[in-house]
Amino acid sequence: MSTFKAIVIDKMEVGQTVRLTDFDERDLMDGDVTVAVEYSTLNYKDGLALTGRSPVVRRFPMIAGIDLAGTVKSSSHPAWKEGDKVVLNGWGLGESHLGAYAEVARVKGDWLVRLPSNMSAHEAMAIGTAGYTAMLSVMALERAGVALNAKGAIEVDDYSRSSVANIYAVGDVTDRVNLTPVAIAEGQAFAETVYNDNPTKPDHAGVPSAVFSDPELATVGLTEEAARRAFGAVDVYRTSFRALKHTLSGRSERTMMKLVVERAGGKVVGAHMVGEGAAEIIQGLAVALKAGATKCHFDRTIGIHPTAAEEFVTMRTPVPAPEKQAAE
Ligand SMILES: Cc1cc2nc3c(=O)[nH]c(=O)nc-3n(C[C@H](O)[C@H](O)[C@H](O)COP(=O)(O)OP(=O)(O)OC[C@H]3O[C@@H](n4cnc5c(N)ncnc54)[C@H](O)[C@@H]3O)c2cc1C
Question: pLDDT at position 132, please?
């Protein structure tokens, strides 16, 4: 009788047992290649199988281990002969077929991949299945003909639909505005469009953002430069001050705030701030900008005293326009 060491999961009346035990080679499942396993990995699915947290194991007893690298011991498969170095990922190993946490595995030759000559079994399993599913997904997308833009991101229309009608993409893979709440909003718009039959475009205008440095920096809407390009004439309101509390703390840190206003309609098209609390303050102002607030709305709003944010509603005099400054 030939036995080998294996980690075996057995089902009990309640729960399961996991043992390192001797396994009889005759109890291996059908397959045309027998592999001397050299290395395996510890995959999330293996964790689920070994702890029994999730019913991933489909037959008992089961040898755990979803992937392996090793050497062919014997083969009746035309592609493989004794001594060949092989890798196997998945194919139900450790779930429905006796797996890789063992000295020996018997598998189908069609499941095996040749180990690259410049890679050891150890190296192959160090990489393991990392990126494997991702790569299969990428290959499937390529085969489907999903088009990429010049930056390598998935090209989508206003409704997040890719060049293949039944494939949509949201989030960073589309490289529109790479922020968490934007990815969520794109996902919501996609769900609304596809599952509620209510075509909805994600709105990428006026997305506020912040740099959580010290002092903080936050911004919403157009920069002064972009606003000049978009509207020609703009008024810029700017203030820079030392926070009231720092007269007590003695710190010299200053705060800067800026409003960019489109001159013709008086609409506030940009709000920017550097200073403590900038992200919190700009998040609030983003609502006003989304609602189309004008400079008059800001002027009519009463401040909370003493706060830094009140400066945003008390700026009255625009800074001289660059064209005027140049003329002087
Ligand atoms: C260091 C850093 C700091 C950041 N800070 C902020 C911040 O403060 N605020 C903010 O709003 N944004 C921040 N971002 C940006 C934000 O993380 C991303 O915009 C956001 O996570 C995008 O969400 P997503 O769902 O498109 O992608 P991701 O969050 O990257 O999610 C994609 C997921 O898919 C998984 N995956 C990939 N391929 C496959 C596959 N084939 N099969 C199964 N799973 C797969 C990945 O493992 C990942 O978990 C930060 C980003 C970085 C890198």
Answer: 79
Strand partners, 70: 37, 86
> From the CB of 18, is ligand 1 less than 6 Å away?
no
Dist. CA 275–CA 288, nearest whole Å: 20
Q: Is the dihedral of CA 225, 231, 235, 237 positive or negative?
A: negative
Backbone CA torsion sign across 291, 296, 302, 303: positive
DSSP 98: -
C-alpha distance across the termini of the chain, in Å:
101
Residue 73 has, within 13 A of its CA and on its CB side, a CA count of 12
Q: How confident is the model at residue 249 (pLDDT cuts 50, 70, 90)?
A: confident
What pLDDT score was predicted for residue 324?
A: 67
Q: pTM (2 decimals)?
A: 0.73
pLDDT digits (tens, 9 = 90+) for 101-133: 999 999 999 999 999 999 999 999 988 877 778
CATH code linked to domain 3-130? 3.90.180.10
- Sketch the domain layout of the chain as residue ranges: 3-130, 145-194, 209-327
As a whole number of angstroms, the distance between CA 98 and CA 180 comes to 41
Distance between CA atoms of 299 and 313, rounded to whole angstroms?
Answer: 5
3-class secondary structure, 144: helix
- Residue 1 pLDDT exceeds 80: no
pLDDT digits (tens, 9 = 90+) for 140-170: 999 999 999 999 999 999 999 999 999 999 9
Shortest-distance Cα residue to atom 38 of ligand 1 = 134
Q: Which residues are catalytic?
A: 305
Quote the ligand 1 centre to 173 CA distance (angstroms).
9
Tokens of 119: 């890679």
**3.30.390.30, 3.30.420.40, 3.90.550.10, 1.10.10.60: CATH of 209-327:** 3.30.390.30
**Cβ of 179 less than 6 Å from ligand 1:** yes
